[in-house]
Amino acid sequence: MLILLLGIILLHIAALVLLFVSTIVSAWTTGKGSTSDLWVNCTTSCVPASAGEWIQAVQALMILSIIFSCLALFLFFCQLFTLQKGGRFFLTGAFQILASLFVMSGAIIYTVMSPQWVPETDTFGYSYILAWVAFPLVLISGLIYVILRKRE
Amino acid sequence: SLTINAHVMAQQCQAIVIYTGWERHALVGSDIRLSCSFFSWRWTSEEVTFSWTYRPDGSRDSISIFHYTGGEAYLDNKGPFKDRLEFVGNPGRRDGSILIKNLDFNDNGTFTCDAKNPPDIVGRPSSVRLLVFEKVPIQAGVITGAIIGVVLGLLVLVVVIYYLMRFLVARRVFSLNVRSVSGPAALCRWAFRQGLELRPEPIPGTDTCVAKLA
Q1: Among B60, B142, B146, B203, which has the minimal tally of Cβ within 10 Å of its Cβ?
Q2: What pLDDT was estimated at residue B142?
Q3: Is position A152 within any domain?
């Protein structure tokens, strides 16, 4: 029982860490000597990213996914102590699934709009890949919460 | 050694410090005022000079576009700013600002102001970057903040409405379809405990009760 609990919490925290790294580290696209991400474009010096509407939407979605995932973790601990025996962690699962939807939307928007922002020679960096990896992890974590039943 | 130190201090005090903006944004077709002023330990001399140079974006050459000296302002009459410059500064108040009219995309670039206040001539020129836009761009972060605010606001709204509904149902402001409950005594007791404000009355001689709205 305790191992299962620990495993679920670790999965959630791992997904959360991936979300943080993906949002903060500047490596969504990399090219020769230039990296750019949601916030800045860096070549030899760093310039704030273009203030287009879509990149701001991606920023907002990534931040919202982090917020909802943190809220889900907090709710999980709350529900762990207040839920009746046999109850399901619906609220936690709902927040986690919402977070995964936000990551998915953000990554999709970035993929679709990247021809506009990224020159042809640049490739996607690891932060972008982390975002796509975080999405299924968060989704699975959310689904686990939904089917999990509380036992005493 | 005291006199040597004082001499060195006097030398350092004589550096002139020039102030311009860092970056200026403007719309195509509008006018823009580029301000330039300086700080100097000396009084403003009669021979104060201001000069502006322009370097287009992506180019390495600068071209002189404005010079004020000996009380006279000399404007660009051959270059890219021909007939578009105006001197709006006040040299007596250490202001060497210029006005550029009818901006175009070709005016994107860096403008450098250099001021000299003899004998105070040692100093670094200061540059201001001009960015010309077709329409005013949205500030970075406005849409981000708006999306986050709206979603979190909706979340708070949903939570508040949920608790409000629970509160109102318990308080009988909403009447449910329970005008009376009749059945085993335990059921009446349950209804009473739920706070549905039903008054249970056992029917004497039986194990049932009737509970009516209080």
Answers
A1: B60
A2: 81
A3: no
Largest Cα–Cα distance in chain B?
119
CATH number of the domain enclosing A98: 1.20.140.150
Structural domain range at position A133? 2-147
Nearest Cα residue to B201 out of B171, B180, B177: B180
Region B45-69 average pLDDT: 90
pLDDT in tens, B118-135: 888 888 999 999 988 887
- Residue A102: is its pLDDT beyond 90? yes
Which residue from A minimizes the CA distance to B151? Answer: A64
SS3 assignment for chain A: CHHHHHHHHHHHHHHHHHHHHHHHCCCCEECCCCEECCCEEECCCEEECCCCHHHHHHHHHHHHHHHHHHHHHHHHHHHHHHCCCCCECHHHHHHHHHHHHHHHHHHHHHHHHHHHHCCCCCEECHHHHHHHHHHHHHHHHHHHHHHCECCC
Q: Is residue A8 part of a domain?
A: yes
Asked if the Cβ–Cβ distance from B140 to A49 is below 8 Å, we say yes
Closest chain B residue to A48, measured at CA: B140
Q: Cα distance from A51 to chain B (closest Cα, Å)?
A: 5
- Best-predicted range by mean pLDDT (A88-92, B48-52, B119-123, B196-200): B48-52
A53, B25, B58, B191 from B87: Cα distances, Å: 38, 20, 27, 86
Cβ–Cβ of B141/A48 closer than 8 Å?
A: no
Name which of B22, B134, B142, B147 to mutate to probe chain A: the one with the most chain A Cβ atoms within 10 A of its Cβ.
B147
Q: How many domains does chain A have?
A: 1
In sign, the C-alpha dihedral spanning B154, A66, A114, A139 is negative
Look at residue B54 in the predicted model and tell me its pLDDT: 93
- Domain presence at residue A53: yes
* A64 interface with B at CB cutoff 8 Å: yes
Residue A124 lies in a domain: yes
